[in-house]
Protein: Agmatinase
Organism: Halolactibacillus alkaliphilus
Amino acid sequence: MRFDEAYSGKVFIASQSDYKTADVVLYGMPMDWTVSFRPGSRFGPNRIREVSIGLEEYSPYLDRELTDIHVFDAGDIPLPFGNPEKSLQMIKDYIKTLLKDGKMPFGMGGEHLVTLPVVEAVYEALSDVTLIHIDAHTDLRDHYEGEVYSHSTPVKKICELIGPENVYSFGIRSGMKEEFDYAKKSGMHLFKYDVLAPLKTVLPDLSGKNVYVTIDIDVLDPASAPGTGTQEVGGITSKELLDAIHAISASDVNVVGCDLVEVAPPYDNSDQTAIAASKFIREMLLGFVK
């Protein structure tokens, strides 16, 4: 189930070569067709793979190794450049295949719009999904300058799909007034600025629920993650994001899929952002895959 059977590129550290026995499938969604500021996140998945070689396979936080689980890296979905609607459909079709085969989907973006078709596929398969959204931005617009498929709109579309009461956003520090007004009126759960403290308060309420986790790397302060398309000052530290991932891992929620998006390597020559992302992905793999 690799996209190119002759694929000879990098794979995430400790990935196995057998799709059939995999518990989780890691895949890239190299799309930045709708970004409103700086493109470049389409290069994120491959760079995260390349720098993952510097990671240990063992997590001292979780006392687990990547060899304890079966991870298959499928490579990047070959998305058609500049065509968001076809790209979203291709992502959704692939996720439907993974779910049919009993695999947990784990995506690497790419802009945040790529989360939408994944949640659509998961919701169609399970009909009961809660979203944990960790991000600097609300992503609650109806459109961006007339374009309904935008990296500014996925969470609003997910609210309309699964119900706003099933959407929990953390770390939010940027958005239009209308977006914050929608959050208040709709019944969704939006927590500004912080992640860990409010997350810990709601996780008991999500016990036993099917949860999809999406993390936008720009929830971090630009000092911790300069390599992203839309930086927002006043963010959390990498330690705080690790603690949030571990809090989800220690809870009784049933993580049915996840992604990490918006790593844009062209804006970080030191690879600080991609290196951080690779560690977050290791911790998510070891914490979310039971």
